[in-house]
C-alpha cells in the first residue's frame, strides 16, 4: 500500500507517516503555529486535539501543501510537501471540515474522477466499490451530488478523500453535526482501514471519540503542542479521579488540599491515584467522621484536556 522504506548500510528504516519539524506559521503579525515538532508512525490512529483556534486546521492545510509554512518542514511518507509535492499529496487523503463539492457528477463518477486526478485508473474501481459500501453510499452511487441530503454529502466527501487509496488519512472533525448512524458507520470503516495499515489522523471536539479510537494524542493550545503521549499515559498522568463523599461531620484538614468542589454536605475530592482512596478512608476513620455516601468516578480524556488546555479555550495571542 505504498509504504516507503529507506535503506542504509545497517538497517531498513520505515519512513514516518508524518514528520513535522520546527513548523511555524505566521499570518501577518499573528503566529498561528509556534514551533511544532511531531512524528506520527505508519499504522497509528492518532488524535490531534485542541480548542477552537489552537492551530489544528492550519497544521492540516500545511500537511496537504495548501499553505506554505513560515519555517520548518513536513514530510508525508518520507516526501517533502514542497519539494516533492505530488508524491506527498498522493500519500495523503484529507477529509475537510466544510462541504465543498462538484454538482455535475454522480457519486461514483465523482470518486472515479478524484482517483483519476491522483493517477489511478480502472484498477482502482474495486477500492471505490469498497469505499462506497463502507460508507453506506451503495444506494446513492448513481445519484447526482447536488441531490444528496446533507448527511449523504458528508459521506460522499469522506469517500472523495479516500478515493485514491491514500496510506495516510486525515479527518478534520468528520463527525461535527452528523447523526449517530453515520458516526458509527464511519468509525467502523475507518477502524477497518487502520487495521489494514492506513495511518489515521483525527481532529475532533468529541473527546470520547478520541479516547475510544486513538492510541496516541497530541493536545494543541495557541499554536503549540502542550501534551503528546499515548491515550493511556495521558489518562494515567493527567486525569484526576473524582471521589464524591457525603459525610456526617466536617472534612478533616489533612484532606482540604484534595477538595475540587463542595456543595452542601457533598464534597468532591480529586485523586491522581486510586491508592489515595485508602488514605482518605483512613483519615476519615481516625477523625471519626462517618461516610453516608461515596462514589468514585473514573477520569476521562475530557478531564485531561481541561487540565492541560484549561479555561483559556479559544484564547489568542
Ligand atoms: N488565513 C488566515 N489569516 C489569518 N489568521 C488565520 C488564518 N487562518 C487561520 N488563522 C488564525 O490562526 C489560528 C488557528 O486557526 P485554525 O483554524 O488552525 O484553528 P483550529 O485549531 O483548527 O480551530 P477550530 O477547532 O475552530 O477549527 C486562529 O486564531 C485563526 O484565526
Write the layout of secondary structure elements.
Blueprint: E1 5-7, E2 12-14, E3 18-27, E4 30-40, E5 45-49, H1 56-63, E6 71-76, E7 79-80, H2 85-90, E8 92-95, H3 107-117, H4 125-134, H5 150-162, E9 168-172, H6 180-195, E10 199-203, H7 207-213, E11 216-221, E12 224-230, H8 231-238, E13 241-247, E14 259-263, E15 266-271, H9 276-286, E16 291-297, H10 301-309
Parallel strand pairs: 5-10, 5-11, 8-9, 9-10
Antiparallel strand pairs: 1-2, 3-4, 3-6, 6-7, 11-12, 13-15, 13-16, 14-15
Helix pairs in contact: 3-5, 8-10
This protein binds adenosine-5'-triphosphate (ATP).
Q: Return the CATH topology of the largest domain.
A: Rossmann fold
In this structure, how is the largest beta sheet organized?
Answer: 6 strands, mixed
* SS strand fraction: 25-35%
Structure ligands: adenosine-5'-triphosphate
Indicate the percent of residues in helices.
Answer: 25-40%
- Write down the overall geometry: elongated
Mean pLDDT value: 88
> Would you list the SSEs in sequence order as H and E?
EEEEEHEEHEHHHEHEHEEHEEEHEH
Domain module tally: 2
- Poorly predicted regions are 312-317
Largest sheet: spatial strand order: 8-9-10-5-11-12
Overall CATH class of the largest domain: Alpha Beta
How would you classify the helix and strand content by structural class? Answer: alpha/beta
What's the CATH H-level superfamily name of the largest domain? Answer: P-loop containing nucleotide triphosphate hydrolases
How many DSSP E strands? Answer: 16
Backbone CA Rg: 24 Å
CATH architecture of the largest domain: 3-Layer(aba) Sandwich
Coiled coil: 277-304
GO molecular function, one term: ATP binding
Pfam families: ABC_tran
Protein name: ABC transporter ATP-binding protein
Amino acid at each position: 500500500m505504498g509504504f516507503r522504506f529507506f535503506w542504509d548500510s545497517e538497517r531498513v528504516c520505515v519512513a514516518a507517516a508524518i514528520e513535522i519539524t520546527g513548523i511555524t506559521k505566521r499570518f501577518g503579525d499573528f503566529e498561528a503555529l509556534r514551533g511544532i515538532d511531531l512524528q506520527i508512525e505508519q499504522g497509528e490512529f492518532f488524535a490531534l486535539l485542541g480548542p477552537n483556534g489552537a492551530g489544528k486546521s492550519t497544521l492540516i492545510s500545511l500537511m496537504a501543501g495548501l499553505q506554505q509554512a513560515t519555517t520548518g518542514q513536513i514530510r508525508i511518507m518520507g516526501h517533502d510537501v514542497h519539494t516533492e509535492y505530488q508524491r506527498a499529496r498522493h500519500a495523503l487523503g484529507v477529509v475537510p471540515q466544510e462541504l465543498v463539492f462538484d454538482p455535475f457528477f454522480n457519486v461514483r463518477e465523482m470518486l472515479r474522477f478524484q482517483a483519476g486526478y491522483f493517477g489511478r485508473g480502472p484498477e482502482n474501481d474495486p477500492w471505490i466499490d469498497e469505499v462506497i459500501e463502507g460508507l453506506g453510499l451503495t444506494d446513492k452511487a448513481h445519484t447526482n451530488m447536488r441531490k444528496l441530503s446533507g448527511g449523504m454529502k458528508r459521506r460522499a466527501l469522506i469517500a472523495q478523500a479516500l478515493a485514491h487509496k491514500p496510506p495516510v488519512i486525515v479527518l478534520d472533525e468528520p463527525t461535527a453535526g452528523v447523526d449517530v448512524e453515520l458516526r458509527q458507520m464511519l468509525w467502523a470503516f475507518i477502524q477497518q482501514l487502520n487495521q489494514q495499515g492506513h495511518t489515521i489522523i483525527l481532529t475532533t471536539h468529541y473527546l470520547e471519540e478520541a479516547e475510544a479510537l486513538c492510541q496516541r494524542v497530541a493536545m494543541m493550545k495557541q499554536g503549540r503542542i502542550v501534551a503528546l503521549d499515548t491515550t493511556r499515559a495521558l489518562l494515567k498522568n493527567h486525569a484526576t479521579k473524582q471521589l464524591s463523599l457525603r459525610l456526617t461531620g466536617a472534612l478533616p484538614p489533612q484532606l482540604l488540599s484534595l477538595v475540587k468542589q463542595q456543595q452542601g454536605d457533598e464534597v468532591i475530592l480529586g485523586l491522581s491515584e486510586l491508592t489515595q482512596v485508602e488514605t482518605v478512608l483512613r483519615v476519615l476513620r481516625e477523625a471519626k467522621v462517618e461516610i453516608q455516601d461515596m462514589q468514585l468516578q473514573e477520569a476521562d480524556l475530557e478531564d485531561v484536556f481541561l487540565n492541560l488546555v484549561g479555561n483559556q479555550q479559544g484564547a489568542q495571542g
